């Protein structure tokens, strides 16, 4: 059959996840065994990050996509779009009018994969453990609105919140709120290495070489009780060094499906006609890319320097040269498709304009050219990242206002250095924890933010974020959310660049690929199955 691109609309939940299976092909598990999934995500245990898969530490899309298959949460984001629904819980909901008391009742008969029963006290232990450990990844900040956790009997859990938080059900759907067995996860320390246990749809066996997970074998958990329908018995996830190696494995039939992260060239090739028996599925995504600033660093401490960069960067040219139709320029931390989005950066700066950028620097008496190094990670966001930063460098240098160099570093070195404040300017991506505007703002701007940023705006932290969280109707929160975005555009602690789509490429006997990723880039391996080629 011809390769074909299936473009899925935002409301994917209304579609049947069916791919045509016409035209035979060998598959990565031709005996009908495990479905083999390729990824370029790297999973490394190191001195700086010894516990990459502990729910109290993990905070990137790759490790979360392992945890979501194995560690159960009270709530889960639905198959398509919409509010989270009960998972380990039988029911959950606010029990007051102020969104400050949230109660859940566990499903009856839940078990960890080792056979131990899952009780309300385990939920309390897991949540309290993540909050008290305060891992330097910053993931515990998702639970910052919790005051106390109360249990009533073996199945009822009550969360008393410090302040109103309409987004709390979403937060209970994230892996930091995953339920772990107290016998396996110490209260006062992280669980080092790649051992992992839970009550989710799969158990996992990690194949580790040189402190790096190279293959994860997911096996259906026979004791799983929850809201998910598991369409396969076994999934093998293989980590590749780069997109090229992953693509070759798909072409040879060593894997059945690949997703994060394909190169722009691969996606363009897969979109064309070729008799290969591979389908490319394109779907909306909420991935964003941005530049972060250490606002205490001498080179960018002046707001005028950051504003001049915002004025000089040409997002349209950047996207066109590097990603083409696979991305769109972004003028806020909040993606255009999320309720509460405002084009605050465009409203303030308009199109790229060197004359206006020069004026900003002149008014602040900044000597030009401003010498800077832009840091990026070589192996976390895909092979096009280097080219992206070459284009950014050339744009800034061609203005005559900056003298910019670029430096790439592997993720296991890059991320710890960024958190320690060793980079003045650095490139990062964000895959949302949940699809709400709050999750594109608070993680970067609130206390204990994920970047370790010294930027502190009291109006945002003390007034606007709490105001926005009081509104259960998220459209009603738009005024506060817009005010936050406008302040960010003025102060530029971060500089949003683009918003991307997401893709899955699979051999044509693999079904369920339309649901393999949700809008928050959650990998849903339970949706995959093997159809009939022919």
3D architecture notes:
It is a single chain. With 534 residues, the chain is α+β, with helices and mostly antiparallel strands. Helix content is 25%, strand content 23%. It has 14 helices and 21 strands. It has helices at 61-70, 120-133, 168-171, 243-252, 264-271, 303-312, 315-322, 344-349, 354-363, 385-398, 411-419, 442-445, 458-469, 478-491, and strands at 4-7, 35-39, 43-44, 75-76, 85-86, 89-94, 101-106, 146-152, 156-161, 202-209, 212-220, 234-239, 257-258, 278-293, 327-329, 370-377, 402-409, 425-430, 494-507, 510-511, 529-530. Strands 1, 2, 3, 10, 11, 12, 13, 14, 15, 16, 17, 18 and 19 form a 13-stranded mixed beta sheet that branches. The protein has a four-stranded antiparallel beta sheet with strand order 6-7-9-8, covered by helices on one side. β8 (146-152) and β9 form a beta hairpin. α6 packs antiparallel against α9 (354-363), α7 packs antiparallel against α10 and α13 (458-469) runs antiparallel to α14 (478-491). The protein is globular, with a radius of gyration of 23 Å. Residues 1-31 have low confidence and may be disordered. This is ABC transporter substrate-binding protein. InterPro entries: Peptide/Ni-bd, SBP_5, SBP_5_dom.
């Amino acid at each position: 059959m011809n390769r074909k691109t299936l473009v899925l609309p935002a409301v994917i939940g209304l579609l049947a996840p069916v791919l045509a299976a016409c035209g035979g092909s060998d598959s990565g598990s031709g005996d009908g065994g495990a479905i083999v999934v390729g990824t370029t995500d790297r999973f490394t245990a190191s001195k700086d990050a010894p516990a990459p898969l502990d729910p109290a530490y993990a905070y990137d899309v790759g490790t979360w996509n392992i945890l979501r298959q194995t560690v159960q949460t009270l709530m889960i984001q639905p198959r398509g779009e919409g509010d989270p629904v009960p998972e380990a819980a039988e029911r959950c909901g606010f029990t007051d009018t102020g969104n400050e008391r949230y109660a859940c009742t566990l499903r009856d008969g839940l078990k960890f994969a080792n056979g131990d029963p899952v009780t309300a006290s385990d939920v309390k232990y897991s949540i309290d453990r993540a909050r008290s450990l305060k891992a330097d990844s910053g993931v515990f900040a998702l639970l910052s609105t919790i005051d106390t956790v109360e249990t009533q009997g073996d199945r009822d859990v009550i969360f008393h919140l410090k302040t109103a938080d309409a987004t709390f059900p979403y937060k209970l759907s994230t892996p930091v709120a995953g339920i772990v067995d107290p016998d396996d996860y110490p209260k006062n320390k992280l669980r080092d290495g790649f051992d992992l246990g839970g009550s989710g749809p799969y158990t996992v066996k990690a194949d580790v070489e040189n402190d790096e997970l190279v293959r994860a074998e997911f096996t259906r958990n026979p004791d799983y009780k929850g809201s998910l329908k598991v369409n396969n018995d076994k999934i093998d996830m293989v980590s590749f060094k780069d997109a090229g190696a992953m693509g070759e494995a798909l072409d040879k039939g060593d894997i059945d499906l690949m997703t994060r992260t394909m190169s722009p060239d691969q996606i363009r090739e897969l979109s064309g006609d070729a008799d290969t028996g591979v389908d490319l599925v394109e779907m909306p995504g909420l991935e964003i890319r941005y530049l972060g600033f250490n606002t205490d660093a001498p080179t960018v401490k002046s707001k005028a320097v950051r504003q001049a960069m915002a004025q000089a960067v040409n997002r349209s040219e950047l996207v066109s040269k590097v990603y083409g139709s696979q991305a769109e320029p972004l003028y806020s931390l909040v993606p255009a498709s999320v309720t509460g989005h405002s084009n605050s950066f465009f409203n303030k700066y308009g199109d790229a304009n060197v004359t206006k950028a020069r004026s900003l620097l002149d008014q602040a008496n900044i000597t030009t050219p401003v010498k800077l190094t832009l840091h990026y990670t070589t192996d976390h966001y895909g092979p096009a990242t280097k080219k992206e930063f070459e284009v950014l460098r050339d744009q800034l240098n061609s203005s005559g206002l900056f003298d910019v160099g670029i430096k790439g570093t592997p993720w296991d070195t890059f991320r710890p250095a960024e958190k320690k404040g060793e980079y003045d300017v650095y490139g990062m991506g964000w895959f949302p924890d949940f699809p709400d505007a709050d999750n594109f703002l608070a993680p970067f701007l609130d206390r204990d933010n994920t970047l370790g940023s010294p930027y502190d705006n009291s109006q945002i932290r003390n007034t606007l974020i709490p105001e926005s969280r009081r509104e259960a109707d998220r459209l009603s929160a738009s005024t506060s959310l817009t005010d936050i975005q406008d302040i960010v555009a003025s102060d530029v602690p971060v500089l949003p660049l683009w918003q991307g789509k997401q893709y899955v490429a699979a051999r044509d006997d693999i079904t369920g690929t339309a649901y393999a990723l949700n809008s928050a880039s959650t990998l849903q391996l339970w949706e995959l199955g093997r159809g009939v080629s022919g």
